Every structure is written in C-alpha cells, then in structure tokens.
C-alpha cells in the first residue's frame, strides 16, 4: 500500500495504490497554495480508499526538478509522515514520472522524453525506455541543444519518441524538423498515481531528497 504526493510543479496531487491498482486519487492544478491544499487532499484520498494511515507500507513523492517551494512542500510532508509511521519515503523525479505516464498513453512507443520549461531559454530533460530503463538522466540544458542530446538515443530506440512536459510542443517541433516523428502525449504535470506506480518497483530505501538541477540564484557574500 503506497500513498504518493506531488507538489513540485503546477499542481497538487495525491493517490493511494495497492499492487498496481489505484484505490483513490485527486489532482488539482495550482500555481501556489500547495502547503494549504496537500494535507486535506491526502485526508480525502485516504478516506476514499477506505484505509487507515497505519496500513501504509510506503510514502512516495516527487523530488524535482520543480519550483523550490513546491518541491519542499511535498518532500517535507512525505518525510514527516514516513517518520511518524516508521516506513520508507521514496523519491522519484518529476521527469521520470511524466515519461512513464506518456508511455502508458502510447502502448507502441518504445521510449519517452520529458521536457520541462525551465525558463531562461533552458529546459529540464530526461528520457526513459519502456520497462523503466532511464536513458537520459534528468539534466538542465539550453533548449536548442535538446535535439543533439537525444540524437544518439534515437539511433537505438527509433525516431518516434512520445513527449511529455511543458516544453514538449517546442521540442516536438524541433525534433520533427530533423526527421523525427515525435508524438505529444499532452502530459504536462506529474500525477501522484504515476508517482506511486513508478515507486512500486523501487527498493525500500529512504530516497526522498530534493533534486536541484539549477544552482540557487542567491549567493552568500564573500
């Protein structure tokens, strides 16, 4: 039994699954207010699932990349609950979760690329193959370099990846101009249900730690 939460990007999401079956889930787009919305949402999905907190075996959460505040809200909640229940807190990147959901929407696709708009003409990028193999670990790079980064992967898995994330439309246009036939899954945010489904395969190790791909803007004085 896994409770998953997701607050790292533009939504607040919670879900409960058991052996691959989603018992309850809720997903609400929002740019702010995650801290106030998360605990009541978790209470609702637990009630809908008909289980008590002591029945949980794991807590799962996205680690980033995402907004600084959003990342911290989900991670703090997951780690505190896991500590209270004495169960593992598992973490997974937002990019991996979106790739998994994108692949679920296109059963014939062999691999998926997650591309998130990181502003400043940069994108967050990762790629995964069907079967959970991580082809390109999460990274931050200039948007115009994305095609070059995925080119070698395409030689092995083909030029028809399925795309996810807020930068997917721009990346699709870039790739298709160079001979790809990329598909847009229209997945823009991770959902807690897929956070839980992805974390079912992970070992019982506390891995809920923030993933920061960009250094902080604030600098300590010399």
Briefly summarize what is shown:
This protein is of the alpha/beta class.
Task: Characterize the structure shown.
With 222 residues, the chain is of the alpha/beta class. The protein contains 6 helices and 10 strands; from the N terminus they run E-E-E-H-E-H-E-H-E-E-E-H-E-H-E-H. The protein has a 5-stranded mixed beta sheet with strand order 3-2-1-4-5, with helices on both faces. It has a 5-stranded mixed beta sheet with strand order 8-7-6-9-10, with helices on both faces. Helix 2 links the parallel strand 4 and strand 5. Helix 1 crosses helix 2. The radius of gyration is 17 Å and the shape is globular. The mean pLDDT is 92.
Overall body shape: globular
Measured by DSSP, the beta-strand proportion falls in 25-35%
> Structural class, please?
alpha/beta
N-to-C series of helices and strands: EEEHEHEHEEEHEHEH
Q: How many beta strands in the DSSP annotation? A: 10
- Helix percent reads 25-40%
Mean pLDDT value = 92
Alpha-carbon distance between the termini? 49 Å
**Biggest sheet architecture:** 5 strands, mixed
Low-pLDDT segments, ≥5 res: none
Strand order of the largest sheet: 3-2-1-4-5
Radius of gyration: 17 Å
Total helical elements: 6
């Amino acid at each position: 039994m896994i409770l998953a939460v997701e607050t790292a990007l533009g939504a607040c999401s919670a879900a409960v699954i058991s052996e691959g079956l989603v018992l309850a889930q809720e997903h609400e787009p929002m740019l702010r207010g995650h801290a106030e919305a998360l605990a009541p949402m978790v209470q609702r999905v637990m009630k809908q699932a008909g289980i008590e907190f002591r029945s949980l075996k794991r807590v799962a959460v996205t680690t980033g990349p995402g907004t600084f505040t959003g990342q911290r809200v989900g991670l703090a909640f997951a780690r505190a609950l896991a500590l209270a229940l004495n169960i593992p807190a598992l973490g997974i990147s937002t990019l991996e979760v979106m790739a998994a959901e994108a692949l679920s929407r296109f059963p014939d696709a062999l691999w998926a690329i997650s591309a998130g708009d990181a502003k400043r003409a940069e994108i967050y990028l990762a790629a995964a193959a069907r079967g959970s193999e991580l082809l390109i670990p999460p990274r931050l790079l200039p948007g115009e370099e994305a095609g070059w980064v995925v080119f070698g992967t395409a030689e092995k898995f083909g030029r028809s990846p399925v795309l996810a994330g807020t930068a997917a439309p721009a990346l699709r246009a870039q790739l298709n101009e160079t001979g790809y036939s990329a598909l847009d899954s229209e997945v823009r945010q991770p959902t807690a249900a897929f956070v839980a489904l992805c974390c079912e395969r992970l070992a019982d190790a506390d891995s809920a730690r923030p993933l920061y791909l960009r250094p902080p803007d604030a600098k300590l004085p010399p």
